[in-house]
Amino acid sequence: MISLPHYAEQHMNTVMLSEGIGIALRPKESEDGIVERGEVARVVRDLMEGVNGKRMRSKVKELQGAASSALAVGGASYQALEEVENKWKKNALVSE
What we know:
Strand content: under 5%
Shape: elongated
Number of helices: 4
Order of helices and strands: HHHH
Helix content: 55-70%
Largest sheet: none
């Protein structure tokens, strides 16, 4: 993924995706704040053919597996949603 922020929280999201999670590359801007076409080409080439792209694809597959596990029956997200459902049911019975 190429992350190029423009407004508001996009700068924070770019830092999180590129530096925190490590699944995005951020093209370098020139001194006047413009991302030159050569820089875009370099980043795309790195993502498609370079070591960074391979590493990022591997990381995304890892995250995809973790998300699938969390959503599966018995997974963390499944259990959390089940707890919410049980609380709603309990509150509905109390208010009847």
